[in-house]
């Protein structure tokens, strides 16, 4: 195309058309069908992909948080404690482990996790946290065997 | 409501048979009798405290013995570093994201140990273990930048499109050792004044 008159000059978008398109095609190289070869399709899908990638970086963090919650909850369920009661008990005992670490402990260090559950349950029972049905060993005999529940 | 009044009336009628009104109320409640034993405990608290302390001591001694014979195996620890918590064990490489001053080759000790454990015991800090109990040594081995992240925003039919590129610094740290430096003391008093360590 040769742009000789004014209206066509306006439409011309510069001499670097090849390079501009190549930048997009490089990103689209692994796409399937015409999104790989046809510029109009390629640029659409590349833009969409980049936007998704930007959003995905935030979503990944939320997803991980959700996954950790699920894992810790499953860990608590083994011992019949709800997640809220467990976390509340830990917080009141000044144990400030986060969800990531608790989930890792639940998976890889089951005995440490059990100890944490026992501590939390004991604290909740002593302070009369509503979710805890079990009576505290602390209330029966003050200070004795306070970690030996069952 | 009517049910309640009925039961209350019945209750009042039988009050004479019962010892007290209170006792009758207790009979009405649904909770098992076990929870209602409110008689005062006649247990010598000091004796129990001693027994409890003894139990603590035996636990501590057993841990100390195990550590003295170095049978405890590989220790793991949970440390707090740059606002994040990491579960580490010797030989691990952890990644600190974002700006962090230490340079390559620096040897540091990670002091905020929230939890340390081995095969047979776990030390849980409230919220961190006391200073000098567990030492975690680490070396900074690499400082790099992340891959290029593309920050791309676009609104359809609104002539709005923004693209930015960003790379943030990353630091790799190798954990050299995690050690129990001094024996556990069951009688240890918490520090009288708040520690002067700066974190």
From TrEMBL, chain A:
What's a GO cellular component annotated to this UniProt protein? ribosome
Q: Name one GO molecular function term.
A: rRNA binding
What are the record keywords, sorted? Answer: Ribonucleoprotein, Ribosomal protein
Ribonucleoprotein as a keyword of this entry, yes or no, is yes
Q: Does the keyword Ribosomal protein apply?
A: yes
Q: Name one GO biological process term.
A: translation
- Family matches, as NCBIfam families: rplT_bact
Q: Which PANTHER family match?
A: 39S RIBOSOMAL PROTEIN L20
Q: Which family, according to UniProt?
A: Belongs to the bacterial ribosomal protein bL20 family.
State the name under which the record lists this protein. Answer: Large ribosomal subunit protein bL20m
Read off the lineage from the record: Eukaryota, Metazoa, Ecdysozoa, Arthropoda, Hexapoda
TrEMBL record, chain B:
PANTHER family recorded: 50S RIBOSOMAL PROTEIN L21 (PTHR21349), LARGE RIBOSOMAL SUBUNIT PROTEIN BL21M (PTHR21349:SF0)
HAMAP family assigned to the protein according to its UniProt record, in alphabetical order: Ribosomal_bL21
Name the source organism. Answer: Drosophila mojavensis
Q: Name one GO cellular component term.
A: mitochondrial large ribosomal subunit
Keyword set, alphabetical order: Ribonucleoprotein, Ribosomal protein
Molecular function terms, GO-annotated:
RNA binding; structural constituent of ribosome
Family as reported in the entry's similarity comment: Belongs to the bacterial ribosomal protein bL21 family.
Q: Which residues form the signal peptide?
A: none
Which GO BP terms sit in this record?
A: translation
A Pfam family: Ribosomal_L21p
Q: Which domain of life is it from?
A: Eukaryota
Q: What is this protein called?
A: Large ribosomal subunit protein bL21m
């Amino acid at each position: 195309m040769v742009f000789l008159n004014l209206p066509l000059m306006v439409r011309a978008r510069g001499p670097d058309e090849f390079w501009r398109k190549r930048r997009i095609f490089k990103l689209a190289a692994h796409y399937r069908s015409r999104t790989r070869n046809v510029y109009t399709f390629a640029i659409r899908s590349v833009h969409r992909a980049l936007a998704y990638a930007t959003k995905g970086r935030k979503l990944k963090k939320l997803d991980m948080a959700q996954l950790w919650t699920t894992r810790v909850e499953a860990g608590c369920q083994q011992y019949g404690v709800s997640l809220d009661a467990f976390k509340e008990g830990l917080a009141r005992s000044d144990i400030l482990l986060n969800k990531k670490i608790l989930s890792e402990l639940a998976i890889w260090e089951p005995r440490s996790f059990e100890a944490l559950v026992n501590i939390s349950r004991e604290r909740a029972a002593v302070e009369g946290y509503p979710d805890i049905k079990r009576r505290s060993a602390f209330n029966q005999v003050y200070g004795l065997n306070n970690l030996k529940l069952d | 409501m009517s049910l309640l009044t009925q039961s209350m009336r019945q209750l009042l009628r039988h009050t004479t048979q019962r010892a007290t009104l209170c006792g009758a109320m207790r009979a009405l409640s649904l909770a098992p009798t076990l929870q209602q034993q409110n008689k005062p405990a006649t247990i010598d608290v000091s004796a129990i405290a001693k027994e409890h302390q003894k139990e603590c001591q035996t636990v501590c001694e057993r841990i100390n013995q195990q550590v003295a014979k170095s049978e405890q195996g590989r220790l793991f620890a949970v440390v707090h570093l740059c606002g994040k918590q990491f579960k580490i064990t010797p030989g691990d490489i952890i990644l600190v994201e974002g700006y962090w001053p230490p340079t390559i080759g620096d040897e540091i000790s990670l002091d905020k140990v929230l939890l340390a454990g081995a095969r047979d015991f776990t030390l849980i800090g409230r919220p961190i273990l006391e200073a000098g109990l567990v030492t975690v040594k680490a070396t900074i081995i690499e400082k790099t930048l992340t891959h290029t992240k593309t920050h791309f925003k676009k609104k359809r039919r609104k002539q709005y499109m923004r693209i930015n590129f960003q790379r943030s610094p990353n630091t790799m740290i190798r954990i050299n050792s995690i050690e129990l430096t001094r024996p556990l003391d069951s009688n240890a008093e918490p520090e009288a004044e708040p520690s002067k360590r700066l974190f």
